[in-house]
């Protein structure tokens, strides 16, 4: 992502912005999910304990050659869903949309 890691982390760790990625994989998108922030590791984690539990994490790493580039890794775990429920592509699309929105906001 073409933005400094501090700027990206500031955006994703802001509680007002969490809903954009904490609901990836959930069928309901209006739930407020608490986010745990680890500033030293530039990592955030969340857990939704609704009828459709979801756990996730996002962490950042500065670019090797350019400090204005941020590598963003996002992991989502949907423990109560069978692997063959057919929603894998939908969840990947939601993840991509969330990352695109973050990119748009931090430019």
Features:
single chain, 107 residues, alpha+beta, TATA-Binding Protein, 4-stranded antiparallel beta sheet, 4 strands, 29% helix, globular
Give an overview of the whole structure.
There is one protein chain. This protein has one domain: TATA-Binding Protein (2-Layer Sandwich), CATH 3.30.310. The model has no long low-confidence stretch (mean pLDDT 83). With 107 residues, the chain is an alpha+beta fold. The longest helix is centred in the last third of the chain and has 19 residues. The radius of gyration is 14 Å and the shape is globular.
Q: Brief overview, please?
A:
With 107 residues, the chain is an alpha+beta fold. It has helices spanning 5-12, 19-22, 88-106; strands at 35-38, 43-48, 54-62, 70-77.
| Order of neighbouring strands in the sheet with most strands | 1-2-3-4
Major pleated sheet: 4 strands, antiparallel
The residue fraction in helices comes out at 25-40%
* Outline type: globular
CATH topology: TATA-Binding Protein
Assembly state of the chains shown:
single chain
CATH architecture call: 2-Layer Sandwich
- How do the SSEs run, as a string of H and E? HHEEEEH
- Reading off the top of the CATH hierarchy, the class is best stated as Alpha Beta
The helix tally amounts to 3
Strand content: 25-35%
The chain-level mean pLDDT equals 83
What's the count of strands?
4
The radius of gyration computed from the alpha-carbon positions, rounded to a whole number of angstroms, is: 14 Å
Q: How many domains comprise the coordinates?
A: 1
